[in-house]
Amino acid sequence: MEKTDVLISGLGPVGAVLAIYLGRLGIDVIAIDRDTTVYPMPRAAHLDHETMRLLHLAGGADAVLRASQPLSAYEFRNADGALLMGFRPGEASPATGFPQSSMFHQPTLEYALRARLSELPSVSARTGHALTGYTAGEDGVRAEIAGPDGDYSVEAKYLVGCDGGQSLVRRIAGIALDDMGFDEPWLVIDARLKTAERLTTIGLQHCDPRRPVTSMPMGPGRHRWEFMLRPGETAEEVVSDDFIDGLLAPFIDPASVEVERRAVYRFHAVFAKAWRKGRVLLAGDAAHQMPPFLGQGLCSGTRDAANLAWKLAAVIEGRAGEALLDSYQTEREPHVRAITEMAVFMGKVVCTQNDDEAVLRDRDMLAKPEPERFSVMPEALGLASGIRGGDTLAGSIFPEPWMRNGDGRKRLDDEVGPSPFIVLRDAGSESAAGFRGLGCFVVEPDFPLVDEETRLKSMLEDHEAILVRPDRYVFGRGPAAALLASWRHYLQSGAVVD
Ligand SMILES: Cc1cc2nc3c(=O)[nH]c(=O)nc-3n(C[C@H](O)[C@H](O)[C@H](O)COP(=O)(O)OP(=O)(O)OC[C@H]3O[C@@H](n4cnc5c(N)ncnc54)[C@H](O)[C@@H]3O)c2cc1C
User: Hey, what domains does the chain have and what are their CATH numbers?
Assistant: First the structure.
């Protein structure tokens, strides 16, 4: 019987990021996937800057950036080409320095994450190994696994289901889904362009009631089209070459593209009613799914991993109480729900197939002058709980400082890893040792931050310290001793007292 701290079922992007974060924190992990290669079907094409930062922490961002391009605009246009609404992403987010919206190729990310996994000594990543069942007790989980050399069992302190929308972990735990009532069938096509010429860097929702279509740039040389199925059309018929050529023809000469991947999905919005049941937890699509109109499913799953990894590590190492694990859903679910509601709203704008409804939609949306229909891309949402109150900075994404690195510079995140950190304004703080004892990285005034780090200085002007959570949200700002007491209490109880 093999034993491990955490068994992760599912090595999609979320399971891989979780395994990497846990591995970087020195936790023993067995991470399995039933498939031997990464998922071959078309899925995520967009990443926001916060996710890119979290992927950078996991060691996957460089490969993704090389295979991605920034989105210049995201437009919703009606059948006549009139702009219903649009968003302009910023080139580089002031908080993270990464493009606010990057269009990318999901398998590139997944291969990069799997390569990173193989470098972590406490992680055993196994492909071709399927979870077939488990029993959960008070102290742990006994899992049954079918591997290429036969069946075996693993005893784990915790099991995390990162096993996607059909999650076996969720089903065995008896956790039901809460359905937000959106359910639309779409054909998704990923294509390589045979010419080097790029189509566009603009993402377009073509809101034509006769056939709603999404057209999105992906990484260089690749493009994504999504076509809503009309009533009566079947998945089998729409994936044929001839049908696809007919769909593509109004947009591009079908002979100039090579269709790499095609799949019919039902876009829906569902939430697992519980994300934790004792020693069993869910993350990513196993816990929540949303329609792709905001490009946030994978982004949200990555945030789950960033929220959960350090909590599991702290509990396993005895630095935190079990109750901290309940804060995972309390903190993450409202965040994902807010994003899902926005994605469903966008989906309803796009998926209108009734002519009369489309006329009304257009009338309402075109009532505003065009400049008002274009807005800047909303900033990534902050965190509403698991933070101290009374400070506007708390819950926001901590702007990443740069530190000196020889003659160059590097991100502070590269030094800290997936741990919390405290930035102290004054030397000799009596709280520094207390923070270190809780696994916090301590940034003292003599730390080699780059000289122009004025943003951080101004944040600290009237405050003794800023405590940043491992998922890079600001926990709070204020006297170091008070932050230490709050953080300690939060670790034990999962609740924050100011
Ligand atoms: C068309 C489309 C477009 C999308 N666009 C975007 C986008 O632009 N941006 C974005 O952020 N998100 C997007 N998403 C969502 C995104 O792709 C998913 O949210 C993301 O892939 C979920 O990752 P995951 O790791 O949770 O699950 P998955 O990627 O589904 O991985 C689950 C893994 O678990 C494994 N598994 C399942 N059962 C078992 C078992 N019993 N034992 C072992 N292994 C098992 C599977 O083999 C799989 O590898 C899109 C989705 C679709 C369908």
Answer: 2-67+103-178+272-348 (3.50.50.60), 402-493 (3.40.30.120)
pLDDT at 197: 62
Q: What's the distance, Cα to Cα, between the start and end of the chain in Å?
A: 45
Nearest alpha carbon, ligand 1 atom 31: 12
Amino acid at 205: Q
Secondary structure of residue 97 in the 3-state scheme: coil
Q: Which stretches of the chain score pLDDT less than 70?
A: 196-198, 452
Q: At what angle do helices 49-58 and 13-24 cross, to 10 degrees?
A: 50
**100, 90 in Cβ contact below 8 A?**
yes
User: In terms of Cα–Cα distance, which of 103, 110, 295 is closest to 218?
Assistant: 103
Task: Report how far residue 107's alpha carbon sits from residue 95's, in angstroms, rounded to the nearest whole number.
Answer: 27
pLDDT computed for residue 196 by the predictor: 60
**Could you say which DSSP state residue 473 is in?**
B
Helix or strand holding residue 135 (H, E)? strand 130-136
Write the DSSP assignment of 386-415 as a string of letters: SS-SS-TTTTSBPPPPEEEETTEEEEHHHH
* pTM confidence score: 0.97
Q: What is the Cα Rg of the chain in Å? A: 23
Amino acid symbol at 413:
D
Distance of alpha carbon 75 from alpha carbon 399, whole angstroms: 28
**Which residues form ligand 1's pocket by a CB distance below 6 Å?**
9-15, 32-35, 39, 42-46, 130-131, 162-164, 168, 188, 265, 284-285, 292, 295-299, 301
User: Cβ-count burial of 484 within 10 angstroms (0-12 exposed, 13-18 middle, 19+ buried)?
Assistant: buried
Measured in Å, residue 276 CA sits from the centre of ligand 1 at 19
- Alpha carbons 60 and 50: distance in angstroms, whole number: 13
| DSSP strand pairing (101-103 vs 83-88) | unpaired
Q: Which of 8, 21, 43 to probe ligand 1 with, by most ligand atoms within 8 A of CB?
A: 43
Q: Could you give the CA distance from residue 98 to residue 81 in angstroms, rounded to a whole number? A: 31
* SS3 state at 321: coil
Supply the pLDDT for residue 349.
96
Determine the distance separating the centroid of ligand 1 and the alpha carbon of 164, expressed in angstroms: 5
| DSSP annotation of 230 | P
Q: pLDDT value at position 129? A: 98
- The answer to whether 487 touches 434, Cβ cutoff 8 Å, is no
Per-residue pLDDT at 338:
96
CB contact at 8 A, 306 and 418:
yes
Tokens of 177: 């889904």
Which among 117, 141, 470, 180 has a CA at the least distance from the CA of 281?
141
Q: How much distance in Å is there from the Cα of 29 to the middle of ligand 1?
A: 20
Ligand 1 centre distance from Cα of residue 220 (Å): 22
